[in-house]
Design goal:
With 403 residues, this protein is of the alpha/beta class. 32% of the residues lie in helices and 22% in strands. The protein is built from ten helices and 16 strands. A six-stranded mixed beta sheet has the order 6-5-4-3-7-8, sandwiched between helices. Helix 4 crosses helix 5. It is elongated, with a radius of gyration of 23 Å. The two termini are 32 Å apart.
Length: 403
């Protein structure tokens, strides 16, 4: 059983630091990143994605909502972070960043200029610099300020894929955290189902789920829970404003368990009171599609094939108009606002080749607007070695739950 409170001691230029993985694993990730940078002729990488900060150095913060950037050079050298004062201490004692610089809030502050000056100090004038543009950690406004500040100073190119691509295949320790997240997701889901009764608010189910998982050692997930009741159960997203469960009703529950920021998502449907036999049949179709997808998820297969199966099963059952255009996405270590670790999404034609250690959430949603009934079911699994099948990170049965 994974000890969710376990920390490892590492060493940065600031002294001893506490990490969630052994230092050797971080150093191997940094070395792979530098090798990929060198192969593309990139002299330095500007790290804006919080997931990349965490993956490479262990730095865990919500400060990415402001201007915050790590600088990783292709050549061996200190790891440098430009951030704000509230993040300074944890960067120094809970990450492998060696040099933590601060930009200060002021009416005329322009941290992109501070970044350029820092890069000049590091000898990066005229360099080819990769930027993680595709992340919530770099707003469009901040991205424009970076491009303006670097004009004539260095050459920028989008390098959003360098770290993200590595993160697709999980290490043995990452899979251990994923297994723990699966157990937490099961605990949370059962707490929500047990709270489902006529008269209860949908928000009470969310509260029960979050309380159960946090009590078991989870991190707060990067999204959800999504608990939709009655006609809202056909929605693909959560919605504000509480709704009470009726005497005869339906509840869609989709939530993530999170262990050390690694997420496992599961989805289940609950029938409250009298169950419509059409919903039982509908759920049978959804379960069939999910099971067939798991059987097909083998090394060497194209990711898009999984959605081909989703479409074939649902269309054949008469739900072509109800189904979604994609049936899932990658999961891993993510930060708010979402647990979805995309790209990649699972859609027909996606050419990504499945590799052992990749982790995906597949959900089959059938929101039938003609009957007003929903059937939603989803599991998270890892691609196994050749001949071993997938590893599913949930022990809950696939069924229409009734209360």
């Amino acid at each position: 059983m994974t000890d969710l409170a376990l920390e490892y001691t590492g060493q940065s230029a600031n002294g001893a630091v506490s990490l969630r993985f052994p230092e050797a694993e971080y150093r191997a990730r940094i070395a792979r990143t530098r090798a990929l940078m060198a192969a593309r002729g990139i002299d330095a990488l500007l790290v804006f994605a919080q997931e990349s900060h965490f993956y490479l150095t262990g730095f865990d913060t919500a400060g990415y909502v402001f201007f915050q950037v790590g600088i990783l050079t292709a050549a061996d050298g200190p790891l440098t972070l430009l951030t704000r004062t509230p993040d300074k201490r944890q960067a120094e004692v809970n990450s492998l960043y060696d040099d933590v610089r601060i930009w200060l809030n002021a009416e005329d502050a322009n941290p992109a200029i501070d970044l350029r000056n820092l890069m000049d100090e590091m000898g990066l004038r005229g360099a080819k610099v990769g930027v993680e543009f595709a992340t919530y950690g770099l707003t469009a406004a901040n991205g424009r300020s970076v491009e303006a500040a670097m004009a004539g100073f260095c050459t920028l190119e989008d390098a959003s894929d360098i770290v993200r691509g590595q993160r697709l295949v999980k290490s043995p320790m990452e899979l251990d955290y994923t297994r723990a997240a699966g157990r937490l997701a099961d605990t949370a889901t059962m707490a929500a189902i047990e709270a489902a009764r006529p008269g209860a608010f949908d928000s009470a189910l969310s509260g029960a789920a979050v309380t159960a998982m946090l009590g078991a050692g989870a991190d707060m997930p990067s999204g959800g829970p999504l608990v939709n009741v009655g006609p809202r159960a056909l929605f693909g997203r959560g919605i504000g404003g509480p709704r009470r469960i009726e005497e005869d009703d339906q509840v869609l529950i989709e939530l993530a368990g999170s262990a050390c920021r690694y997420h496992v998502v599961i989805e289940h449907t609950v029938s409250v009171g009298k169950t419509d036999p059409r919903q039982v049949s509908q759920m049978g179709v959804a379960i069939e599609a999910l099971e067939r997808i798991k059987e097909a998820a083998v090394p060497g297969e194209r990711l898009g094939t999984l959605d081909d199966i989703h479409r074939s099963v649902l269309d054949g059952a008469g739900f072509a108009k109800a189904r979604y255009a994609a049936c899932g996405y990658a999961l891993g270590c993510t930060f708010k606002p979402t647990w979805m670790d995309v790209p990649p999404m699972i859609y027909t034609g996606n050419p990504l080749v499945l590799t052992p250690g990749m982790v995906f959430f597949v959900h089959i949603m059938i929101p039938d607007t003609e009957t007003g009934l929903v059937a939603g079911v989803g599991q998270t699994f890892a691609i196994g070695e050749e001949g071993r099948g997938v590893e599913t990170f949930s022990d809950l049965p696939l069924q229409l739950w009734t209360v």
